[in-house]
Amino acid sequence: ISPNIVNAVIASEDNKFMEHWGFDFDAIKLAAEKNKKRNSTAFGASTISQQTAKNLFLWPDRSWLRKGLEVYFTLLIELFWSKERIMEVYLNIIEMGDGIYGIERAANIYYDISASELNREQAAIIAASLPSPRKPDCLFKETSIENPKSYATNG
């Protein structure tokens, strides 16, 4: 796996990944404040470790039971795995497009290369798709580099 995708995902998804023990309490507090202000649950604060626990061991719907189990599995992952292992598993199970799971498959489909060959630009574009992995098509069109607004208007 290219270090470029690791760096891009950390920058995009969880910039405190190397510092926390599975939970970013500042991000949780900020998300709670935004959600309270807007009377919604639109803003989340899941770390890479939490997303790994959810995607590896749990089901996708939102419930307090699933969130409680996610906390439990996140603690176990952080206790027994290195940050490198957590990132490796995350990158190999996360959805990176409609039905596209794992960085190797995404790199192959979008760029016809191996995940180890991703450059910074390619890695950043893939990382930018992670919040809405089923809507990234316009990110991977040649025109998206020249017209960055295409993701916002088409996504």
> Cα distance, first to last residue?
27 Å
Give the topology string: H per helix, E per strand: HHHHHHHHH
Pick out the low-confidence regions.
143-155
The assigned structural class equals mainly alpha
Descriptors:
single chain, 155 residues, mainly alpha, 9 helices, 59% helix, globular
Write the layout of secondary structure elements.
Elements: H1 3-13, H2 25-38, H3 48-57, H4 64-80, H5 83-93, H6 103-111, H7 120-129, H8 143-146, H9 149-154
Helix pairs in contact: 1-7, 3-4, 3-5
How would you portray this structure in words?
The protein is an all-alpha fold and 155 residues long. The protein is 59% helix and 0% strand. The chain has 9 helices and no strands. It has helices spanning 3-13, 25-38, 48-57, 64-80, 83-93, 103-111, 120-129, 143-146, 149-154. Helix 1 packs parallel to helix 7 (120-129) and helix 3 (48-57) packs across helix 5 (83-93). The longest helix is centred in the middle third of the chain and has 17 residues, at 64-80.
Summarize the structure.
The chain is mainly α and 155 residues long. 59% of the residues lie in helices and 0% in strands.
